Amino acid sequence: MNPTHLHVILVHAPVAALLFGALSLKIGTFWNSRPAQFLGYATIFAGILAAFAAGATGEEAEEALEAVGGFSHELIHEHEEAAEGFMFGIWSLAAVALVGFALLLLNHAKAKLLAWIVLIYASVVSLGGMRVGYLGGQISHPEAYDQAPAIHSELHEE
């Protein structure tokens, strides 16, 4: 398995984990369940780690596509730009979630407020991840987006 395979596998985990973590935080906060809140934070942190791993394999996946040829450089660039914005959201979510988790551990009065902020922010950041995935899908699955496959169209241009 190479970094391109890992990239394709890992890119789905951040969005799913952030949404599941936000849902768990919502349930935990609404029902005052500390275990559900712990699960929510743990799942969000797992999603953050998965986003870092997906980002770390992205550059090598891009290089592999360019080496093979036949893929739209413009689509790859759009995907990369969206991923950079998503990573900004991931870094800031990590900071806010760490504060929220620390307040939960300390039984601080503001822990519930921070949990609501984290769950909303994780949901918003996951939307950015969905956009990154949508753009990545256009690169490797043009048939799903009413586009001619890039490799096929390039062969007919010659």
Provide an overview of this structure.
- Helix content is 84%, strand content 0%.
- With 158 residues, it is mostly helical.
- The chain is elongated, with a radius of gyration of 19 Å.
- The two termini are 33 Å apart.
Question: Main beta sheet, described?
Answer: none
Distance between the ends: 33 Å
What is the number of independent domains? Answer: 1
Indicate the low-confidence ranges by residue numbers: 152-158
Enter the CATH topology name: Four Helix Bundle (Hemerythrin (Met), subunit A)
Our estimate of the beta-strand percent is under 5%
CATH class: Mainly Alpha
Second CATH tier, the architecture: Up-down Bundle
Total strand count, please?
Answer: 0
List keywords for this structure.
single chain, 158 residues, mainly alpha, Four Helix Bundle (Hemerythrin (Met), subunit A), 0% strand, elongated, disordered C terminus
Task: Explain briefly what this protein structure is.
The protein is mainly α.
Describe how the helices and strands are arranged.
Layout lengths: L2 H8 L1 H19 L3 H35 L4 H33 L5 H30 L9 H8 L1
Helix pairs in contact: 1-3, 2-3, 2-5, 3-4, 4-5
